[in-house]
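Dear support,

Our group has been running a series of protein-ligand predictions, and this particular one with flavin-adenine dinucleotide is the one our PI (initials K.S.) wants archived with full inputs and outputs. We had some confusion internally about which version of the output was final, so please treat the block below as the authoritative record. The input we submitted was:
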Amino acid sequence: MSPRLVPAGSDPVRRTERPVAVTVDGEAVTGIAGQTIAGLLLASGRRAWRTGPSGARRGVFCGIGVCFDCLVSVNGEQDVRACRRRAADGDAVSTQNRRPPEADGIRQGPEEAS
Amino acid sequence: MSRRHVVVVGAGPAGLAAADAALAAGARVTLVDSAERPGGQYHRMLPDAYEAANPEVLHHGWAAFDRRVRRVLAHDRCTWLAGTSVWALEREDPARAPLVHVLGEGSPGRRGVLTPDALVLAPGAHDRVLPFPGWELPGVFTAGAAQALAKGERVAVGERVAVAGTGPFLLPVAVSLLEAGSQVAEVLEAAGGARVTRGWLRRPWELAAQAGKTGELVSYTAALARARVPYLLGRAVVEARGDGRVEEIVSARVRADWSVVPGSERVTAVDAVCVGHGFTPRLELLVAAGCAVRGGTPDAVFVQVDDDQLTSSPGVYAAGEVTGIAGAPASRAEGAVAGWHAAGGAPSARPLTALRRGRDQGRAFAGRLAAAHPIGREWPGWLRDDTVVCRCEESDYASVRAAAGDPATTEARVAKLGTRAGLGPCQGRMCAVTVAELRARLGAPDADAAAPHRRPLAEPVRLGELAAPAREYDG
Ligand SMILES: Cc1cc2nc3c(=O)[nH]c(=O)nc-3n(C[C@H](O)[C@H](O)[C@H](O)COP(=O)(O)OP(=O)(O)OC[C@H]3O[C@@H](n4cnc5c(N)ncnc54)[C@H](O)[C@@H]3O)c2cc1C
Ligand code: FES
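Confirmed final output from the archive:
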């Protein structure tokens, strides 16, 4: 199984849920208003959405904007920390890869998956 | 006469208390936090959009916190800059507090400058996680991440979860996971039973002074016992395994120095593991402001403050986890002392005596915790040659070791270029302290204790944001 949202009906904080719809690499995903993109992706059963330099999969690690493991691009904006950005209706989220070192030794920044 | 302008960075327990005290002392206050809502890590609030009717069920001391938030944010001399990060400090005049460069959320973010008479820095800490084979697998979270997601979003990170590492923070994390509906397979505390008991139970009058904290710990222990969660002392997670995600962990008995007892390894099936080996203070702004640090070893560096919470840097006060890891009550007391002095409040004010006492008790408590939960020296025994040390660049232990032993790369900066450890997107926030510690062990000279925290830009800024004119917030 995977991460999940505490069901609103049994949540003692007594919260309200309003749906938010985003796309992840073109696929429609629904979450609830107020969730961070990381929270939304986790609650939708995703654990990883980025790859490290070796191609190894990565997702959330620190949850508070410090480790940069959760980077995504949102509406074309690169390197957004998914754990710090609230999902907005209609956001187009795409996953990112780190490219291996260039032949000239200059490492490229994270870039969008093709 | 114009009022003193105090800028407070961080709206956690320390920063909120600082703002409150500075307002009480008559200053004008600008409170800045990169989060949208105040509270910091301890009082992590649910998003507004959740419209939670009972947010307090997730919090200790909610009523006092809620009163303080209302009092501070509604004050007519307080400006609250939510969702605003301080990305740099710049000292124009050596005798005055530095200029504070802020970036508001948005795309592009709004850049601005604040010119304080005094600055209170209360940016808190983040989890420290020692590396182990497989710690980069999805499904390995910091203990704080699990807490942040459960408390701040109501997301449970897994169905069957292990919580591991060291320190009392593992307890609230395990309880939050249970509360959010996860099954907690086990809580593994690396410190041995004798050490924990000695550390916690020696000088009980100090614990009594921290009644709030002690009560909290007792309630966590009771909740774990009720749910029959095994709490194992002297056992550490030494490996995470799985195909593209965590499927199981390997734990082992460890001795007092955290060396593994051979043959004691055991496999536990989990879909998430939450790990914390204490906290690393977020010192970049303090180092950028030129504040002297204390503590000689890379893993125990904090900012140095005097009895008034003033750092060695003119006009710069510090409070909370950056001065030592002591929990929310001590952070609050420190914040209040810092805010009062930053605002130019009378040094003889009566409430200061009690605040100072609270702070000193908090620090004593912190000393106790540190003594009960030290990181054992032999933890690198968990590492293999190919264990990732720097998560961003995937630099492995073999390369870090080789660089430390190679005369050509003994200098930290050169080693960094050679191994790339610390040069990725997080700029060493996750690995720098560990790498510095490993290098020191391996005999490489790393003289500057503040080096792992030297990061002139505290937050990433885009070139377009830099190019846009900055707004003067306070003229
Ligand atoms: C993820 C996490 C979860 C935690 N949860 C708990 C818990 O549930 N219970 C518990 O007892 N302890 C918890 N702790 C321990 C916690 O650090 C302390 O108990 C307490 O919150 C410290 O108070 P503080 O005011 O020093 O810092 P914090 O509460 O960390 O507050 C610091 C604030 O500064 C802000 N900040 C940092 N840098 C910048 C910047 N450059 N610009 C603008 N703002 C900035 C942050 O957004 C944050 O709101 C947690 C720690 C972490 C890392
Ligand atoms: S999970 Fe660490 S930055 Fe988002």
